[in-house]
Amino acid sequence: MNLALFDLDHTLLPIDSDYEWGQFLARTGAVEPVEFAKRNAAFYKQYENGTLDPVEYLEFALGTLAKFSRQQLDEWQVAYMRDVIEPKILPAARALVKKHQDAGDLVAIVTATNRFVTAPIARALGVEHLIAAEPELDDDGCPTGKLVGLPTSGAGKITHTNAWLATRGLSLSDFERSYFYSDSQNDIPLLSIVSDPVATNPNALLTAHAQAHGWPIIHLFNAGSNV
Questions:
Q1: Annotated active-site residue in 7, 18, 183, 187
Q2: CB atoms < 10 A from the CB of 155, how many?
């Protein structure tokens, strides 16, 4: 059994699910649209530039969730999946995940986005295991606006992946081959410790790094892409 890890946003999805969730809330009128959209866009730009403070961003995103009842959040989540996410789950991404599943690999999504946003996306992709930022929940299952533990970004993806493997009595060294697919230079720490790093729909910074280190580069969402 090999290990196959996948980033989510711009890797298996051609969009950023966290950013799009914020845009969805703005469109529904759940948040004040102009100021919220401005802050959401500013955080996204920081992410692209590699300057994002993950705790600051996550507590902004989770603080938005904390304003609403769980029932309301669940209703919005259904609409968000239907209207925004499901049309963006494309055949090439499904085929890549399925290739590893059919090979008997242990498959997981490792994302900096929080579990509230990403758990239904992982289910829609048919991926059982999800490593994501964990929102603190109150006794009614509603987010409090706080983050539990370390962010699942940058080197934090290594920490959380190792912890998840340890719960299964495993470590990275137990796998003959370990794959990680990602689009971003933010994931270079985890890409650098697997046996098979794959730059997937990479941005310019990751493209340059992958070319310098001889890593394969794939583009899932180009016309006629094949995996």
A1: 7
A2: 15
